Amino acid sequence: MAKQVLEIMVSFAPPAAGLSLSRDAFRRRSTTTVDDMIYRHILRPILFKFNGETAHHLAMIGLGIASVVPGCPRIMRSLMAPRSAVPVKACGVTFPNRLGVAAGWVKNGDALPAVWGLGFGFVEVGTVTAGAWGGNPKPRVHRLVRDEGMINRMGLPSQGWEPVRHRLEGRRPSMPVIVNVGKTASPDIHGDAAVADIVTTVRGMAPVADMLVLNLSCPNVTDGRNFENDADALTGLLTAVRAALAGAKVPLLVKLSPDMAAPDLQRIVDVSMACGVDGFVASNTTKSRDGLVQSELAAGLAGGLSGRPLRDRAVATVSAVRNRVGPAPLIIGCGGIFDGRDADMFMDAGANLLEGFTGFIFQGPLYCRQVIDTMRAG
Asked: Rounded mean pLDDT of 95-118?
């Protein structure tokens, strides 16, 4: 009700003398501020009373309902989409804007129409694996509120590629869908079997994906970085994946860790480029706990850290990769994007597209608009 009252008041009240802000712009800014305050001071405190995974589950239920209500996603988009966004073309794919939802939020391809309604330019679904996997024992998601960060040790839970593909075939949103692919996290799958496991998912998901991302840098599974740490194994995997994609015009990216030393990062980037990948996602979550205010809490928690504490590491990774590969390959910047200033840092470092996850959780449903509309150039 407060929002509606404010909208009525603003519609009749012209801007104060001497201000150049138009009535429509003033109305948009005022109602955006009200929505932001409602989330920060009412909805977020309620959601944050639940553990992170439960809150995410509740949010996905809400988005799932919104996805099947006729006209609801379109109404959401009209209210929440960025005002200053311009389309971006990368690897032959056109994106409505350059900010997407990072992998981990929409793990199994649920509620995509409502995710589109939130204003995003694309979504990265997954991580998707060949077999169903329950992930690590709970609790496995911990918020660091003072740090505006999050530690997760989900362990790549997945329903398996077949139900995810079926879901994407049945309800495609009006935005590109990137599919994040990983190895089924069972420690019994390794060596040639691990390659075959990943190739199975690549083959299964390629027909419904606008791009594919290989997640070889997950810090939350015991063998999450075997390919990343072994150049020969990485070459074998990428060669097999490229063969599986023969004839399919689906760009292939590799997701990188922010924790690699410079020589190791250069090695994996060079091997990936030699094997014909189209770009990189930089970066995954970090094992580092440097600079945390809530260090006494974080010290005892295993898993990958995301959010504001990750930003500088992720930006540095983007910069190092861009300097290594030159201007052509696609780089998606991810890690600690909360506002336009953060986004500009990634763009200045060499990113073409951007992804958010933890910033979305802390900032709320107007996150996409707030980021894009406060960038130097959306």
From this structure: 94
